[in-house]
Write a structure and sequence with these properties.
By secondary structure, the chain is an alpha+beta fold. The chain folds into 2 domains: 111 residues, no CATH class; 157 residues, no CATH class. The protein contains 11 helices and 13 strands. The strands form 5 sheets. It has a 4-stranded antiparallel beta sheet with strand order 1-4-3-2. A hairpin with a 2-residue loop joins strand 8 and strand 9. The longest helix has 45 residues. 30% of the residues are buried.
């Protein structure tokens, strides 16, 4: 194994007839040269990393089912009880003067502000709701996340591998108590060499280019499906976070978990709820809403 500090300008892979391979990684500022045996290790490690990544990606499906169901069920409960509709909060959802929420309405909204709690907590929060939305119906409108169900899942012993090896990929952290694949968040990947004595921090598009080069067709297809699932899940989280920010901007105080009557803007809360309801309807709707905010930000800049 030969590591060159040559600061390459672009990603490149060069395969030789003797089976050796050279990989230029501009984001790490190095080029990695492997002989035929090490090249085979690279391929095997990519397969192991794929198994690990696919298994972690099943988290997306589990979390989506809970988080989406939680929010959609609370919205449908507000509608079912006659507290809120597409035209706004009703007399049944507001006090006699129409200036503040009734106790039950406010309680439902305050629970919705906890949408980033652990899945176990969200399940507990919604167990007594009179309306429970079927997550399978929602999944039919979120194709990138629904596709996770068809991806293979591996037990830990099938992808754990050894750490005392010449070459190993790592790109994971924790999210709500479970693993997330960081490569699908910011494109970063660590390559540990010689049992971790040397670590290459690969960023940008280099990691994706590397897997495109060394994964077989089926493996690459699964890898890209996992990537799209994380993209779809991120769209959901962006929309949910904006909804919670909307509640805060219109009177909800997260510190005391209560709506401040002096700052309460019922119309603003309605708009935040209306937008969330529209976004939850489908992956395409949520992405369109999120993209509209990106466009607004660009214009302001």
């Amino acid at each position: 194994m030969d590591l060159k500090l040559d600061n390459p300008e672009s990603f490149a892979v060069k395969r030789e007839q003797d089976g050796s391979i050279g990989v230029s990684l501009p984001s790490a500022g190095v080029s990695l040269c492997l002989d035929s045996a090490e090249s085979e290790l690279l391929t095997n490690e990519a397969s192991r990393f794929l198994r690990e990544t696919l298994s972690h990606t099943h988290y997306v499906l589990k979390r989506f089912k809970v988080q989406h169901t939680f929010l959609a069920s609370y919205i449908q409960t507000l509608i079912n009880k006659g507290h809120w509709g597409l035209d706004g909060f009703t007399e049944q959802g507001l006090d006699r003067k129409g200036e503040t929420f009734k106790y039950e309405t406010e309680g439902l909204l305050e629970y919705m502000a906890g949408a980033f709690c652990f899945s176990k907590q969200l399940n507990e929060f919604m167990k007594d709701l009179p309306v429970k939305v079927d997550p399978q119906i929602a999944l039919s409108q979120w194709p990138s996340i629904m596709a996770v169900a068809s991806l293979p899942y591996f037990e830990k012993e099938e992808y754990e591998g050894e750490w005392d090896v010449p070459l190993r990929f790592t790109s994971s952290g924790t999210l709500v108590g479970l693993f997330k694949s960081i490569i699908f968040h910011d494109g970063s990947l660590e390559i540990a060499l010689n049992s971790g004595k040397v670590k290459l921090y690969v960023k940008g598009d280099d990691a994706f280019c590397l897997f495109e080069e060394i994964l077989e067709h089926d493996g690459l297809s699964e890898f890209n499906a996992a990537k799209q699932a994380w993209v779809g899940f991120t769209e959901l989280e962006i929309g949910v976070r904006r909804f919670i920010d909307g509640l805060k901007a219109n009177g909800y105080d997260r510190e005391i978990d209560y709506f401040d009557s002096d700052r309460l803007n019922i119309g603003g809360v309605h708009e935040a709820l209306l937008e969330l309801n529209k976004g939850l309807a489908s992956e395409a709707d949520m992405k369109a809403i999120n993209d509209s905010y990106k466009g607004s930000s660009s214009e302001q800049e």
